[in-house]
């Protein structure tokens, strides 16, 4: 489970509040994960635990996923 030491902090990186920065945030997360999996080659158990955690976070509620924001479209409603 040593592999998870570098994967779990990815889930704690806060999403930007500005919707314009969301694309940059998603690109950073995706590139970090691709680089991590290519360089470190984590074990199967760690990979499954991380992917399960990401899927549970993404589908537990609207706006929780690290890969997309809570706003639909480009503008958020204030209120």
Automatic annotation (TrEMBL):
Coiled coil: none annotated. GO terms for cellular component: membrane. Its main location: membrane. Keywords: Membrane, Transmembrane, Transmembrane helix. It comes from the Eukaryota. The chain crosses the membrane at residues 20-38, 45-69. It is found in: Membrane. Pfam families: BC10. PANTHER family: BLADDER CANCER 10 KD PROTEIN HOMOLOG, BLADDER CANCER-ASSOCIATED PROTEIN. Acts as a tumor suppressor; induces growth arrest at G(1)/S checkpoint and apoptosis via RB1-dependent and p53/TP53- and NF-kappa-B-independent mechanisms. Modulates expression of genes involved in the regulation of proliferation, cell cycle and apoptosis. Belongs to the BLCAP family. This is Bladder cancer-associated protein. The lineage of its organism: Eukaryota, Metazoa, Ecdysozoa, Arthropoda, Hexapoda.
């Amino acid at each position: 489970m040593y592999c998870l030491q570098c994967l779990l902090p990815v889930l704690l990186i806060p999403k930007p509040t500005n919707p314009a920065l969301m694309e940059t945030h998603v690109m950073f997360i995706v590139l970090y994960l691709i680089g991590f999996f290519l360089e470190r080659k984590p074990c199967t158990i760690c990979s499954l635990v991380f992917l399960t955690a990401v899927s549970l976070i993404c589908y537990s509620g609207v706006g929780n996923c690290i890969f997309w924001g809570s706003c639909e479209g480009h503008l958020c409603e204030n209120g």
